[in-house]
Description:
By secondary structure, this protein is mainly alpha-helical. The chain contains four helices and no strands. The protein has helices at residues 11-22, 27-34, 38-48, 55-77.
Amino acid sequence: MAPSQRQPLTAAEKRRIRAMHETGESRNAIAKALGRSNGAVTKYCQEAGLVFPHPQRAEAVTARELSVRERTVAAHER
Length: 78
């Protein structure tokens, strides 16, 4: 069967995705372990409401929030 015509995820695969997600595995690691595409895992995770954290994005947001707070405090001190 051609890769574009893969069968839908089985109930067992969906359970395994959820279990691996709960342990903090990445989307890529889950896809590799299941022998499925990243797209298939991503699509299921979106449908199931499973979110993967983005550490770099979180760090950037935290830095931005700190910068805004510092500027706010500095503005009030003037």
